[in-house]
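Contributing new records

If you add data, match the layout below exactly. Sequence lines come first and carry their own label; structure lines follow with theirs. Keep one chain per record. Anything else will be rejected by the validation script.
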Amino acid sequence: MKTIGMIGLGNMGSGMCANLLKAGHNVRAFDLNPDAVTKAEKFGALGTSSASAALAGVDVVVTMLPTGQHVLEVYFGDSGAVHLAAKNALLIDCSTISVEEARQASSFAESAGFTMVDAPVSGGVEAAASGTLTFMVGGNEDGFDRARPILEAMGKTAIHAGAAGNGQAAKIANNMLLGISMIATCEAFNLAEKLGLDAQTFFEISSNASGQNWSMTSYCPAPGPVSTSPSNNEYEPGFAVDMMLKDLKLAADAAETTDAHTAFGALAKATYEELSKAGYGQKDFSVVMRQIKENI
């Protein structure tokens, strides 16, 4: 049993915090939203009024934050984790940030005498709540071995992607693929409907044929076939359009830096930019189905 400082209790962090508590860990929890802290307290966490109070003396720090700037501040600012956590505490950042920021954070942590891993997640809000997330972990072998029991309390799979920053590399590439495949899946359902196939019939055929993919079988963007999909709840997240757009921007920046050809990634980014500008930023990213059908 570890004492864990959990910073960031949004849609993803809330479920992750709950699962750490279910595994028997002591969790000190903080978020800028007081309601999120109150929710964590109901699960059994010790809610705090500041990040520094959550970090003081803890064995492990787990963060789920919006940007790399937030990550660097929480860990290395004047009241950051490296100044407050127990000596040799393990630092686990589950945010999605740039590869460069993750490697910078790891370097800063090492200089301060700490081991840090970048461990972004895949699976969405439902998986965070159910403890079935997949973690893509960057860092040294010792860091991965130490992080694995904590990550496995929050998810079903933790995969070591290699050196610091490689977890973010895997996450960015994976989510670019997800964004592209979701758009293609929406276009396929729309075409099938216009050709006279209802969504359920097309789902039963394509989910058992060569077009099968996660966006179809686990997160179907057409209402009906998969009852737990956001498409059956007015496209409430889920994984918001603005979060997908953030990841696609990270992918675009990485592609430019490395001179990687990502033409379809660029098209996906443009599609989600249009949705965000149209006021759909907080809807689930599968709302692209509605955009295609209704030309919003």
